[in-house]
Design a protein that fits this description.
The chain is an alpha/beta fold and 209 residues long. The chain is 44% helix and 11% strand. The protein has 10 helices and 4 strands. The strands form 2 sheets. Strands 1-4 form a two-stranded parallel sheet. It has a two-stranded parallel ribbon with strand order 2-3. Helix 7 crosses helix 8. It is globular. 30% of the residues are buried.
Length: 209
Amino acid sequence: MTGKDHEHHDHGSELSETQQRVRALETILTEKGYVDPAALDAIIEAYETRIGPHNGARVVARAWRDPSFKEALLKDATAAIATLGILGRVGDHLVAVENTEHVHNMIVCTLCSCYPWEVLGLPPTWYKSAPYRSRAVIDPRGVLADFGVTLPAAMDIRVWDSTAETRFLVLPMRPAGTEGLSEEQLAGLVTRDAMIGTGLARRPDQVKS
């Protein structure tokens, strides 16, 4: 099942014009010795694995603990995350979709790699790959199995197709046995893949102490 009909994506090439300019500028600065490639790699790695996903994990943990914030998040995610000091790019609209006992959501961008960078960091390589972008819509259950996620046969899987204007964030189900955890501890259970929908939030016993 598809969460929304495929809309027209006005994306052009795999890289946007802005991304192409940034890449060209990076090449020039590196060649002239103004920028250390290793330093750039470190910055990118930090944004991909810590800064971005950390923001999203904060959002999810707050929604798990605060019913009023969860309600606001599901109503208007862009406005809700702004209350935490997380601002999206101008023109972007963030939509939060909630996983339940009956529904599992998964995000894809079928024509390129639109992605909520402000909450998830840089998109993983597989998210941008053609196999994921096509199979996520055609065989979402099979894709989830590839990620090690097996869901009940009766569970409805909804695939949400991102666009240049609308991005999605999956609000994963809160793991059992986490009632006494702090917001910070809860955030430690939230993975990037859980917020894309290709994974589940971790149980406390799956987190290294």
